[in-house]
Amino acid sequence: MSSQFIQLIVDGLASGSIYAALALAIVLVYRATGLVNFAQGVMAVFSTYIAFTLWRAGLWPIAAILLAVGVSLVFGAGVERVVIRRFERGSVATAIVVTVGLFVLIQGISGAIWSYNPLTFPSLFPLSTVKIAGAVIGVRSLGTIAVLVVVVVLLQLLFQKTKLGLALRAVADNPESGSLLGLHVGRLLMIGWALAAALGAIAGCLVAPQVFLTPSMLDFVLVYALAAIITGGLDSPVGAVIAAWLIGILENLASAYLPVIGDDLKIIVPLLAMFIVLTVRPQGLFGRKELVRV
């Protein structure tokens, strides 16, 4: 196995980890409400701008990011309580249009407050490199992968080992039955949106040091995240993570070994993955097939 191949794999896992963080946020909202939140990316950017503001105010980068993640919890809960709750039990098409409206609104607010000029965001990880099996791997790539692994483990512990996690799963599977069991459905849905916003903030803070911070910074990541959840399964957090990693690896390999694709056309990889999976297995690689009784 060549050192270049190993480097491409690790860098692909790092890119896929960023896609996976945003994909997890979208899956959380979908499992709680049956709604795909197209505003997830701009909500993450808004939280990243908050981290940037706190950093410029004098906080250490890690402290600024952690505080911004805390603020994003409140932000996500507020969006669900004030806006989304009015449409959750109505038409799905109307709710989706509302999230698209939120996309435009929040992106405009971010531009109005912080301008559309690109800003430099501090990196959590040093720009140094390490050698692994002859490949030169960036510490930032390894750090990004580590952050996602920690997030996935924490989410798994939350949903499998805590009462809150069990309640969230019950409401996601059947809100009517959860309500009959005495669960506060509205409050749990709000918590689901809050957790999703926090995950989005983490994704934004991982992306921002690698590109310039702008209101549209995560638009391309949203495309990859949607591709990951469609490929892995809309109702499968683990599937979204695995699909995001696969997409990250495959696009890196394609851009390196297929000259016809290169860096300019590697967006074809997630689109092709979506097309193939939707053709062969519409529910996604790890999704559950819905059975309708008639």
Automatic annotation (TrEMBL):
Under InterPro entries, the record lists:
ABC_transp_permease (IPR001851), BCAA_transport_permease (IPR052157)
Q: Where are the transmembrane segments?
A: 6-28, 35-52, 58-79, 91-114, 134-159, 188-211, 267-286
Work out whether the entry's keyword set contains Cytoplasm: no
Q: What is its main location?
A: membrane
Q: How does it sit in the membrane?
A: Multi-pass membrane protein
**Alphabetic keyword roster:** Amino-acid transport, Cell membrane, Membrane, Transmembrane, Transmembrane helix, Transport
- Where found in the cell? Cell membrane
Matching Pfam families: BPD_transp_2
Family stated for the protein in its record: Belongs to the binding-protein-dependent transport system permease family. LivHM subfamily.
Q: What is this protein called?
A: Branched-chain amino acid ABC transporter permease
